[in-house]
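Students often ask what a holo structure prediction actually looks like on paper. The answer is less mysterious than it sounds. You provide the chain, you provide the ligand, and the output is a string of discrete structure tokens encoding the 3D arrangement of the protein together with guanosine-5'-triphosphate.
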Amino acid sequence: MLQANTYRFAVKLHIFACKLNYSLLENVRQEDPIIALATPPGSSAIAVVRLSGMGVIELVNQVFLGKDLTQQTSHTIHFGTIHDNKRLLDEVLVSIFRAPKSFTQEDAVEISCHGSNFVVQQIIQLLVRRGARLAKPGEFTMRAFLNGRLDLAQAEAVADLIAADSAAAHRAALQQMRGGFSSKIRQLKKQLIHLASMLELALDFSEEDLDFSEEDVDFIDKTALKTLVQELLIPITQLIQSFQLGNVIKNGVSTVIAGKPNAGKSTLLNAMLNEEKAIVSHIPGTTRDFIEAEVNIEGVHFRCIDTAGLRDQTDDPVEAIGIARTKEQLQKAAIVIYLFDLTTETLFSIRQTNLRLASSEVPCIKVGNKMDAAPPDLLQALQQEDFVLISAAQQQNLHLLNSRLLACVSLDRLSKTDTIVVNARHHDSLNKCKKALEDVLEGIESNLTHELLAQDLRSARYYLGEITGEVTTEELLGNLFAKFCIGK
Ligand SMILES: Nc1nc2c(ncn2[C@@H]2O[C@H](COP(=O)(O)OP(=O)(O)OP(=O)(O)O)[C@@H](O)[C@H]2O)c(=O)[nH]1
Ligand SMILES: [Mg+2]
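The corresponding structure tokens follow.
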């Protein structure tokens, strides 16, 4: 009884703390004024200097000539000049955003000036002398998060969106920023709360009706509870699995081009890139170190790595190091393109190598190169098998290789509505949540007390809360936003 009361008190305390935390988030905070260049440094037609925080409209108004900015409504743009005392600095457009209708939910101003480093620095220094502070990396987005404009997952997506340079990465980041992923997490949390309330109910029962057999209560709950936990584990596992694809979208697919010396690996890399990046020569052992280049195929990034040709024996110590590096790269590869030189190999030698490749766990695309100069009977024999036949030098059949590469990352799994985990932190929290739910299942099996089961459920909720930022530590926030650029 005492244990149950203590537990209930702890739950109430927890709920109170959550509400307090929430109400703190609800009240938009107006922090000290910060300033940063929001566009890339260097010369450009236009640069945007961004300010946010308490009194920024008044601050800019002190140096702006044209209109009284303090009298203007939110979401308006004003033409005028910026002056340092009597010295004209630039002709500018000033955009006004009033709290809470801005990205940070604070008063915010954007100054569009001419994109000269000198002008930008003059304007920033002037406003710093008047009281603004230089923003830290990610500080604008951090304020948006602290004021409840975005949750943590959405804030992280802002950074991903800025970094996105492929269609798939862009789509995943945009979906996350607009809250698709967060709403999925909230939905899962709701289910967890339902589960917790079932447990609470069971606790009430066993306390109020002392004649009521503890076993009966357990029995009623057990089956229903188990089903609910199992149902919840399905979407969580799906999300965890989607990370493999998410990682590919975000970081590119590590694709190693391997094969014997002179097979045409460097020629293939150059053909895929449409650029003479790697040295090509008829001398076997030309490539010594690996060469990495990004190839974009239908919006998916492949990090293609041209390697030193593999041979069993070499007297050249530098080549030997190159071969060791090739083997290292092969260990880390997500896909291997193995190239055969059809002008020197026989069907027998190809099949022998093929046997060795078959034991590899990494998907391997077998490619016969130099089809333009290959014996016709060899081509015919390989056509019957699982080979892609190309000519790297003449850029023949490269589209077939591209389709195979795309099939390896099964991009068809990436539908527009799918939620994909792209962030390693989210992946980690989901894994911890899954483990906690598996502990609940185990606990039900081994007749663990409701209190202990409730504790595992609370852990599961905690880990989901980590993703959206309902539970955070200062250290986590500091690390996370430090990765942003200044001005974001
Ligand atoms: N006929 C023909 N020759 C090719 C083709 N692809 C490459 N070659 C030639 O094969 C030779 C070797 O090409 P590389 O691309 O340097 O071969 P590699 O596999 O990178 O060789 P290493 O770096 O030494 O391991 C060069 O003379 C290329 O011109 C092709 O499709 N057809
Ligand atoms: Mg080479």
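The domain at 34-150 is CATH 3.30.1360.120 (Gyrase A; domain 2).
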